[in-house]
Design goal:
By secondary structure, the protein is mainly α. Helices cover 58% and strands 0% of the residues.
């Protein structure tokens, strides 16, 4: 049996922080996405592409995302 590392909200937050998104530790996945998108608006094109690529890569491996992380990426405007 193969056991995969699933991306939980802590892993997700760490990945966002690794590309420069300033996040607090107590944010939900949805709040993290909304904060990342707001931050993205103030960045140059190369940084925007990094965030877009992160979301794309995570969604390409959606089977490794916990449901709340996947839902947050797919529906960033929902509370």
């Amino acid at each position: 049996m193969m056991i995969a590392d699933l991306v939980d909200q802590d892993d997700f937050r760490e990945r966002l922080i690794s590309i420069g998104v300033p996040l607090c530790a107590d944010l939900s996945p949805g709040e993290s996405v909304r904060a990342a998108l707001a931050w993205r608006e103030r960045q140059d094109e190369s940084v925007r592409q990094q965030l877009d690529q992160l979301f794309q890569t995570l969604l390409e491996n959606a089977d490794l995302l916990l449901p709340e992380v996947k839902s947050a990426i797919l529906s960033p405007s929902l509370p």
